Structure formats: structure tokens, C-alpha cells
Amino acid sequence: MTKIPRVNVHECAGCGLCTIALSEVFRMAPEGKSEVYAPDKADKAAIQKVMKDCPVGAVLWYDDGKKAKE
User: Fold this and answer.
1) pLDDT in tens, 24-52
2) SS3 string of the chain?
3) Which CATH number do you get for residue 9?
């Protein structure tokens, strides 16, 4: 199964770090939180770095709607 990145909007602080690091994958939603709009536009390593750098840990891998074990 393919893992896809998602942003937990309840945890997202809206700092925009992920949107700056990978604007081809992440963007700011009108609510002021980050969202994934093109998960296939970057490789897994680049997305993993954004996950590691997120100050609140809001970017996670999901598989079929459930948090994936990494």
C-alpha cells in the first residue's frame, strides 16, 4: 500500500515551514493551516525531512486513512 503524507489540522500551528520547504507538495489552506495538495510531487526522503522538521509533528504518513507505522 502506498503511504501518503497528510497534515493533522488539529495539531498544525500554521507556521508554514512545510510550505516553504516543499511548496510543490504543501500549501496553506484558507483556515491558516497547512495542507497536502500534491503528495506525489516530491520524493519520500524530502517529505520525511519536512515531517522531521515540523515543530509540532503535524505532518504524518497515512495509509488508507489510518496513520501508517514508519
Assistant:
1) 999 999 999 999 999 999 999 999 999 99
2) CCCEEEECCCCCCCCCHHHHHCCCCEEECCCCCEEECCCCCCCHHHHHHHHHHCCCCCEEEEECCEECCC
3) 3.30.70.20
